[in-house]
Specification:
The structure holds 2 protein chains of 2 kinds. By secondary structure, chain A is α/β, with parallel strands linked by helices. Chain A has a single domain, classed as 3-Layer(aba) Sandwich (Rossmann fold), CATH 3.40.50.300. The longest helix of chain A has 16 residues. Chain B is an all-alpha fold. Helices cover 82% and strands 0% of the residues of chain B. Chain B is globular. The two termini of chain B are 22 Å apart. Classes of the chains: A alpha/beta, B mainly alpha. At the A-B interface, helix 2 of A face helix 1 and helix 4 of B.
């Protein structure tokens, strides 16, 4: 369960989040859409504690994010661009994160198998292709079996086969009752993966609800059309 | 907390050793001491020369390495910050994980040649100790300053590097020049106490003076040297100097921590 109350964040003079309210119940799969610079990544980073909010409060699984850090044990995060320490070897990186958390990565081998990462395990991260780095990112996000998953444009760098495997995996995580949050510009992908959608425009939530309701309200067949219509509306 | 700190520390050590240039850094000091032993034959002269080079080299290398580390590790920092890790623990892990190997490389590099040049001669033990301690302290101070600059100018590397070099230049060269000007202009007034205070505000000067005192070459500095000797040569002077170095150790480290804890990544 994620609760956000009047969340504000500015970078310099630029107000990125303008008093956001949001409640995401446990087990819900939600897509976050909006134009570039709307505040999607900032929202996710604030929930992770990477970005410090100016005001407002966030609680995740009833833990207030007030200098707290243990709540991150329940969150798996796959960043938009997967960059990792270049000199490190893939298997070492996975092991290091395990050691750091003092926790066994229950799905490590399963994910390595699914993403076909074995041939990459002994390579340094700097020689990995963009897509393979993303798979490492996905593995890191899911290997501890966290209850909440954040994916920031997860399939952007993946080839069709990997993308397919990744989506299958997300379906599995959803069925296991995980809270899933995905930002994406690929509407067809969101239609497959999530049932709720949040539309953010200039730091404010313009729509939050079920995808089917959004389609009905806007008399559209596809999410893409409905979102395009929302974007055209005067703010 | 301690476990997490040690994990981060261990990983930094591993990464630094793999990068190999820390070994090169130690090797520079090794060659330096070795060569000096061959030319000067040992004793005080060797350690004065080592300290002269150390006083210039350690601050600039530590400073540049500190800031470079922050710029190069942005992704790594982000990755660690998404884990259940306290920001303070992470900061101390990184800071000590970078500073300690550099200090150790210096210590081993500078002291190892003693092994084949006849070990510690009578009376040079405390001199050696002082040089090694000051070198290590300077390493920590300037890596800390590098961290502060890197975190402060996180998105503007040119500014970060520029200001870092200016800081080094100021402390290594300009500061002394300013003190000279003050002495030159106000030499007729009793300003010795003031000069001592001003000198203590610059960690590089402070280290230099401690070395001058230890090697008993303050006589070279004439009247000022005598005044310095009167102050720094005393028990109180020594305590004050090391106290000041302690403060210098704390300021960059805690300033860096403060910025790190509030920063948006």
């Amino acid at each position: 369960m994620i609760r956000i109350n009047n969340l504000k964040k500015a970078f310099g003079l630029h107000q990125v989040l303008k008093g956001l309210d949001l409640t995401i119940p446990a087990g819900q799969a939600t897509g976050i859409v909006g134009p570039n610079g709307a505040g999607k990544t900032t929202l996710i980073k604030t929930m992770l504690g990477l970005v410090k909010a100016d005001s407002g409060d966030i609680s995740i699984n009833d833990i207030h994010l007030n200098g707290n850090y243990n709540y991150r044990r329940d969150i798996g995060y796959m960043p938009q661009q997967a960059h990792y320490p270049e000199q490190m070897i893939v298997s070492e990186l996975l092991q290091f994160i395990e050691d750091l958390r003092g926790e066994e990565a229950v799905y490590k081998h399963e994910l390595i198998n699914e993403f076909k990462l074995q041939p990459e395990l002994q390579k340094q991260l700097r020689v990995l292709s963009g897509g393979n780095k993303q798979k490492v990112g996905a593995t890191l996000a899911m290997m501890f079996n966290p209850a909440i998953l954040f994916f920031d444009e997860p399939t952007a760098g993946l080839d069709p086969r990997s993308s397919f495997i990744f989506k299958e995996r997300i379906q599995k995580e959803k069925e296991a009752g995980k809270t899933v949050l995905i930002t994406s510009h690929i509407m067809s992908e969101l239609e497959q993966l999530v049932d709720h959608v949040i539309f953010i425009l200039e730091g404010e939530i313009k729509y939050y609800g079920k995808i089917e309701d959004l389609l009905k309200e806007n008399r559209q067949e596809r999410l893409e059309g409905a979102i395009a219509k929302l974007m055209e509306e005067p703010a | 907390m301690m476990r997490i700190y040690l994990q981060i520390l261990r990983n930094e050590f591993k990464t630094l050793l793999r990068a190999k240039w820390v070994l090169g850094y130690g090797l520079i000091f090794l060659l330096l001491t070795d060569t000096l032993f061959r030319f000067a034959g040992g004793g005080t002269e060797v350690w004065i020369s080592v300290s002269n080079i150390m006083l210039l080299l350690i601050p600039i290398i530590s400073l540049i390495y500190g800031i470079l580390y922050i710029y190069q590790s942005r992704d790594y920092l982000e990755l660690l910050l998404t884990q259940p890790v306290n920001r303070s623990t992470l900061f101390w892990g990184l800071y000590t994980g970078i500073s300690a190997p550099l200090a150790v490389a210096f210590i081993i590099g500078a002291a190892l040649p003693l092994g084949w040049h006849g070990g510690i001669t009578e009376g040079s033990g405390s001199q050696l100790l002082l040089v090694l301690v000051l070198g290590s302290v300077l390493t920590f101070i300037f890596v800390g300053l590098g961290f502060v600059m890197g975190l402060w100018f996180y998105d503007d590397k040119i500014k970060g590097f520029g200001f870092s070099i200016i800081i080094w230049l100021f402390m290594a060269v300009i500061y002394d020049g300013l003190i000279m000007v003050i002495i030159f202009l106000f030499g007729d007034y009793p300003i010795e106490t003031g000069i001592i205070a001003v000198t203590m505000l610059n960690p590089m000067d402070l280290a230099r003076i401690l070395i001058l005192m230890e090697f008993d070459i303050s006589a070279l500095m004439g009247y000022t040297g005598a005044v310095f000797n009167q102050f720094f040569g005393t028990y109180l002077g020594t305590i004050a100097s090391f106290g000041m170095l302690g403060i210098w150790l704390a300021i960059p480290a805690f300033a860096g921590l403060r910025i790190f804890r509030r920063k948006d990544f």
